[in-house]
Sequence to fold (271 residues):
Amino acid sequence: MSDDWNMPSGELMKGKRGIVMGVANQNSIAWGIAKQLAAQGAEIAFTYQGESLERRVRPLVESIGMDFMIPADVTDDESMDAAFAAVKEKWGKIDFLVHSIAFAGKDELQGSMVANTTREGFRRAMDISVYSFIDCSRRASEMMPDGGSIICMTYLGAERTVPSYNVMGVAKAALEASTRYAARDLGKQGIRVNAISAGAMRTLSLAGIRGGKSLMGTGREWSLLKEDTKMEGVAGAALYLLSDLGQSIAGEVMHVDAGFHVVGVPDTPEE
Ligand SMILES: NC(=O)c1ccc[n+]([C@@H]2O[C@H](COP(=O)([O-])OP(=O)(O)OC[C@H]3O[C@@H](n4cnc5c(N)ncnc54)[C@H](O)[C@@H]3O)[C@@H](O)[C@H]2O)c1
Fold:
């Protein structure tokens, strides 16, 4: 996959500042979203998981003329304190937050969910993929005195069973519930919280799931549009939710998956 996405430019995000969490490389969904936000005039602070990723992330960030990068490991309170303090010090307040972070161990993302989910694996998946969103929402909201918009990334495995997705499906269900509760709490402050449920896309995270690639093939075969979920579509939905276009939308899980989620039975040869 390449970085030659066609992201329309404009001024929908002009004057808005925010944090994008979860760029690991040029295929990351967070990177697609960041490029679209930047093309519409947003100023972005990028957090990345740790020093080892900086080498890959820095050239991307610089390629769009930005340089505000902060390491942040969501499992480490000190690292999170430092990251949000750095943004507060530089900007004082923000308008948006993109949470595009998840993790489960390889052993958990294969075979039987019942047999392969350890207590430690469950705890880790929930901590990194769900608690971090609650934590980031709290931290971000404290810097949103004028309201704002927060999004996270989820997948159909929260609603239906998907082979090998296992504990991550359980975590995504909790993430979607967390989105609704955070939207309820923060709505009073004019902060909208929503989730995007993307179809399978070729990223590092997908590679961690046994048989992950075949999820993309099934997406092409079963989806209404008969195609892969496009980064432009996911980034466009993020732009919509994070800009003023998305006003009045809160607590929503928006599917951007070429219509895959509405299919109960795939096309039959007789059709
Ligand atoms: N790729 C897909 O098919 C797909 C579909 C729907 C939803 N999603 C979701 O999109 C989001 C982004 O995933 P992606 O597909 O772009 O893959 P990715 O691997 O590019 O992104 C995952 C990110 O999580 C970060 N991360 C993991 N542990 C962390 C920690 N302890 N602290 C800080 N960051 C940490 C990684 O550094 C990485 O940047 C995830 O929530 C994923 O579940 C992906």
